[in-house]
Each structure stands twice: as C-alpha cells, then as structure tokens.
Amino acid sequence: MEDSFIRLDGRFDSLKGVKEAGVFQDRCRIFHVYSMSDIRQIEEQLFDKSFRSDFFVMIHVLKGETTLKINNRQYQAAKNSVVFSTPSSLKSGLNFSDDCEFEGIGFTIDFFKDLRLIENLGDMMLFFGNQLSPHWNLDDDTGKLISSLIGKIDMRIQQVDRHSHGRELVAVAFTEFLLETAEIATENANFSGFQYGRKEELVNKFGELAQKNHIGQRQLTFYANKLNITSKYLSETVKEITGKSAGRILDEIDLIEAKRLLENNKLSITEISDKLKFSSPDVFSRFFHRMEGCSPSQFRKAIFA
C-alpha cells in the first residue's frame, strides 16, 4: 500500500519520546509524544495529507487538544479523549495545541494471529470501529486505565525475550487491552446489550470486501457470491445491523475515496473518475452531487479556498 502506516510510522523512529514495540515493530507500535518539537515534526511529516493503513490505531490525548479526521469527519480530541481507527480508514491530523501530549498504539491483524488471541476478537474490533463512534470522551479513571493497559503491553513486549513465556504474557496484556477497549467502545456509543454474532460477522466481512473491491465492483451480487449467500439476505442483514442499505455503504466508501483524490489538485476530475472506474466524468459528478450536495469542482474549490 503506497501510503501505509508502516512506511509512515517508520518516520517515528527519529523522534524523541516515541517508543518502538521491540521485535513486533512491524506489527505493533507503542508511541508517546510529549514535546512540541516532536509534535510539529509528526504534523509536518505524517499529517500533511490523508493516508490509509493496514493498522488499527488508537490515540489517547493526555494534555491539550488536537483535531483529527477519520473518513473525512473531524473530531476534536481533548484531554482523556480517545480516537480509534480501523484498517483502511482514511486518516489525517489537522492541528495540535501548544501543550498537546498523547500516547497510543498501532497494531495489525497479523499481530492477532501471531499471538493466537480470542477467536473473532479482530473481527469484533473491526465491527466496533465500523459501527460505533471512533471518538470517545473518557473520565479520569478510564483514562488512567487506558494508559496503564498501553504501558503494560509496552512492558511485556520490551521484555518478551527475557521471559520463558514472553509471548504468552504479551497475548494476555493485549487481550486485556482489547476487551477493555471493546467495553469502553460500547459504553461510549450507548450500545447496550451488544452481542457479536454471525450477522455482525457477516456485515464486517461485507465491509472488508467493500473496502478492497468497491472500485469497479458496485453490484451487490458480487459481494453476495463472495460470501456464499443471496443478495436479498445480504441486503436485509446489512440493513438490520447498520441501519443502512448495502448500496449506501458502497456509495459512502466511494465518496470517501473521491474526497481523498480531490485533495490532490494535480488530478483532474476526469482522471479521478477514471481511477474510481465510473463510466464517465458526468456519471461521477452526478454521483458526487447526490452524495455531497455539490459538484466535485465545488468541493475542491472549498478545500483550496
């Protein structure tokens, strides 16, 4: 992936106060940024444009505030705020206050597999990120809990080669972090009585397929065939779980990608239409206007105004 978190996250290596997660650095990173010089470097190097990744990323703001954008929605994150993004989410940071300090963790699905964590835990986290709010305002006690859990993972990873059960201890610490995070996510979304079952898993798999194949694959039958179910069942299940039609979800993914491409003023509207595999620029413009209420050109002008 051209703008992967792995490539961009490699730039953290030279920044003071940013800690790598040892032998797992290609699949898990713990970071703590506490000085303005570090923050400004990250702002210039990482957050000057939107990017996608293969990582789950959680940022916990410890002091000050920052404005982050997830899938083109802005979130103002102050002290004890958490912002959580899933793989393939479109991410960018917009600004940081002078006293901003934050910590966080980034990890891949492979990290789950290597540690042999609880079955479906990765799918659960994808579902939480896709269906619930990615921005949570925590109380002081919950903020301290998040910090302690991240710190415990960091400690276990740093000591993994010094303990005969090092990997098992990493798995225990990481599982505790994920289960607590899942509980916090449901509480902050007012999602009482949540149960992760077959329908939720199906919707999550549909979302993953849609992220990977939405360009050029806008027919519901394609996804139903991949999932070995009927188009009717897929449509009904997606609507039941998300409150949106499957077609609407595909449209929203296309819109997010269109907005990302429109941020690059070197690409013409025709080139963007071709990249997204619309049949013509006019069809793309009508789609964009239907979804956003303005033309692609008007949207671009507003960005660079």
Biggest sheet, spatial arrangement of strands = 1-7-2-5-8
The overall pLDDT average reads: 77
Largest sheet: 5 strands, antiparallel
Q: Low-confidence parts, pLDDT < 50 over ≥5 residues?
A: 1-23
The total count of helices amounts to: 13
Report how far apart the termini are.
30 Å
Q: Output the CATH homologous superfamily of the largest domain.
A: Regulatory protein AraC
Question: What is the helix/strand order?
Answer: HEHEEEEEEHHEHHHHHHHHH
Give the CATH level 1 class of the largest domain: Mainly Beta
Q: Helix proportion of residues, in percent?
A: 40-55%
Find the count of extended strands (DSSP E, 2+ residues): 8
Briefly note the CATH topology name of the largest domain: Jelly Rolls
Can you tell me the number of structural domains? 2
- Cα-atom Rg, whole angstroms? 20 Å
Question: Can you walk me through this structure?
Answer:
This protein is an alpha+beta fold and 305 residues long. The chain folds into 2 domains: 5-188, Jelly Rolls, CATH 2.60.120; 198-303, Homeodomain-like (Arc Repressor Mutant, subunit A, Orthogonal Bundle). Helix content is 50%, strand content 16%. The chain has helices at 5-9, 36-45, 109-115, 121-131, 140-158, 166-188, 198-213, 220-226, 231-242, 246-262, 269-275, 281-292, 296-303, and strands at residues 28-33, 55-63, 65-70, 73-78, 81-85, 91-96, 101-108, 135-137. It has a 5-stranded antiparallel sheet, with helices on both faces. Strands 4-3-6 form a 3-stranded antiparallel sheet. Strand 3 and strand 4 (73-78) form a beta hairpin. Helix 4 packs across helix 7, helix 7 (198-213) crosses helix 9 and helix 11 packs across helix 12. The longest helix is centred in the middle third of the chain and has 23 residues, at 166-188. The radius of gyration is 20 Å and the shape is globular.
